Every structure is written in C-alpha cells, then in structure tokens.
Amino acid sequence: MDVHEETGGRLRALLDDAGAPALRGDLLDEALARGGRLRRRRAARRTVAGSLCAAAVVAGAWAGLPGPGGRDREALPAGRPSASATPTRPTVLDQLPAALVARFSALFPPTAALDGDHYASAPWVGTDQPAVLGGMSCDPSVVGRLGAGVVRNAGVATQSIVRAGRLAPTDVGQLTISRWPDARGWTQVVTNTGTCRWQGVVRGTYPGGDRPDRLWMVGSDDPARVVAVRRVGRMVVSAAVRRETPEASTAEAVRLVDILATNVAAHGWPTAAVAP
Amino acid sequence: MIGRGGAPGGAEEYVRAAGPRLLRFARSLTLHDADAEDLLQETLVRLVVHWRRVERADDPDRYVRRMMVNRFLSDRRLAAARTVTSDELVEAGVGAAPAPEGVVEARLLADGLLATLDARSRAVLVLRYLEDQPDDVVADAVGTSSGNVRVIAHRALARLRPLLTTREPVG
Q1: pLDDT tens digits, residue range A169-200?
Q2: Distance of CA A207 to the CA centre of its chain
Q3: Mutate which of A2, A3, A4 to test chain B, going by most B C-beta atoms within 10 A?
C-alpha cells in the first residue's frame, strides 16, 4: 500500500474514533426558523417589487421606476427599517418567564466569591440592553439607527458589584451575561458594530495574549478601569471592574469573567431566543 | 408544504436527518465546538433559503457540503489574521498525549493533526477520509480540479505522516 494511502487510512480510523459531537435540537430549530424568516422576507420583497413594477407599467411610468438591484431596494418598504425607524422589538422584561430569570441569575458568582464586596441588588434580566454593562452605551445619539444585518441580543442579565463605604456603597464592578441568536452577536461586540457601542474604553491586549474568544478593553482616561469579555458559544460574558490599581483591576476582571464563563459553559444554556 | 417557522417541509426533513452528520463534518473542519455550531447553522439557514435549488440538485448532500466548505473557507480567509498557530495543539495532541483510548482522546489527537494543515488541505482530507468522497466531489466542494485535490491530499498526508507514525495505529 502507498505510504500516503496508509497515512490516509490511519487518519480515517482516527476520525472514526473521534465520534460525532452532540447536536442540540434547538440549533436545528433555530436554523429552520431563521431560514424560514429569510425566505418569507425575500418572497415579500419579490411580491412588493412585482406589484410596483406591474403598477408602474399600467400607469405608463416604467421609465421612472428604479431598476432591479439598484436603488429600488431602498424604496421598498419590506425587509429593512427606514432611515427614521427606531428599533421595533419591544423590551420584554415583564414577559420573561420567572424560570428563565432564575436560570440567568444562577450563572453569577455567589456573593462569597466577591472578595468582600457584594451585589447591589438582585440581578436585572431583560433584553435590548448593552452586551457589556460598564463599557457600552446604547444611546441612540451615539449608536445611530438600527442597520440591516444587525442582530439584537435575546436576553441580558446584569449584576452590579458594590463595596461598602463610610457614607454610601461604591460601585466597583458590573457583570453581564448576554445571549445571542448566533455568532454575529460576538462579532458585533468585537467590531463595535451592534446596536450598542463601546464608550470611554479602548481595546487592549487580553492578559496572557489575545485569543479569538476573548476581548480586553481599558478605560481611555483611566487604566484602572478594565473590561474582560469572553465568548462562550452564543453567550457573551463580561466583567467591568474598577479597583485601586490597574493590576488589581486586571486580576479581578479576569477572575470574575472566568467564573462567569465556566458557569455558562457548565450550564448547558439553550440557544433558542427569548424574544419573538 | 411549509414546516416549522416557514421552512419548506422537505428542508425541515432534510435538516433533521442530516444535522448530526453535518455537525460532525463542521466540527472536523473548524476543530472547535462553537465554531462548528455556527458553521452548521449558517449553512442550514442558507439551505432553507435556497431549498428549491438544493432540492433540484442531483445530490443534495454534495450541494450542502459544498455550501459548508465554501462558507468555512471564506470564514477562514476573513479570520486568517487572528488564526492561532497550531504548534501547541500538535504538541498537546501528538507529542505528549498518551495513545488514544477513547473518543475524547481521539478527538484531541485528530484536532491536533488537522490543525497543522491550512484550511483547504484540511477540507480536502476531511472530505476524503471522514466523508469518504471521491476526488471529483472533493474538487467540486473546494473549488479546484481533481488533479489539484490529489496534489493537496498528497502534501497534506506527507505532513501528517511523521506525526501519525510516532504513534501506534489507531483502531
């Protein structure tokens, strides 16, 4: 047997031994639903375009109608928000099932793991919020309008960490867990192209070296303010931390985001979207 | 017939039947669980959107594999700048790890080996040795000629051979 074919045979045996990864049923459901939505949208565009063309021909106005593939798509009502449109999906905070809130809440580190600090209140769970509390802004004047291809998160849970002070508690950190319909959520966070954008922070190098599933941000005017962000499948977890020194902030942010990532990975979180 | 979420019934049937197999294929291409799920989902969404074309194809599996490989190669080009060197994986998977005794070990070892290859070579070997596809189908999927597939496979196997021969035969 040819030596390379023998190598190929061993590779085949190894791939066989490696087995098949577990497939989550909701992954297929979501793909079918997304594909179905896109099909309907495309069909609606075709229908509207066809109707407009037919009406224009009847009215003798063919010459005035933009050509296919050109600016006519901008004029069509379906499939894309107009320039003045605001995000259409309502916040569904009050519609979130209690069980889901409980599941989100269970992903945060226990108070005992906060090194003497404590949570300001119970976790806040909702949608259409920044993927990273303490580093991003969703102010429409900053973000601009919702563009085509931008995905929204399907649920966000946040916790603020405070330290007891002489007069009042001091805010020393924020933890965020966000859930996305697909990988575009993470891409938007990294490329700063989502509905919420980084504000007051600049990109730095993740402690230990950059990796595709990690992102590090540092306060643009305060190096002791850092944000550690990690991707866990379609979840994005983050820890925004402010301590006395950059070194202390870095160590705490990495520690907290690692706990979040471990909890999310161990939780077997479903991928189906909360919102419609 | 329209199935769940507006997907054609035939598409839903196909997706449910082929999903596990396609995920395995995606996992062997990407070497990463989350990336494999993303690749699978993106491919399936396109499959549903273009179901009429897929259905009309002589061999829907072949069509879908091509969609997935195209997507994988295109994503890899975009991500090339942030691709991590595979030396650590190879050392972990081949040099230091004990002989594979189970699925996890075999997967680690396979990942380590495949990570030494560029995306196109990996796609060629995975199509050949996981999917057992003939060279003309592999060529169609990666967008090259059958002759070039043989050249790519030859070079890739030559690269893997010393890594594999340091171990006892698998299986």
Answers
A1: 678 899 999 988 888 889 889 988 887 888 88
A2: 22
A3: A4
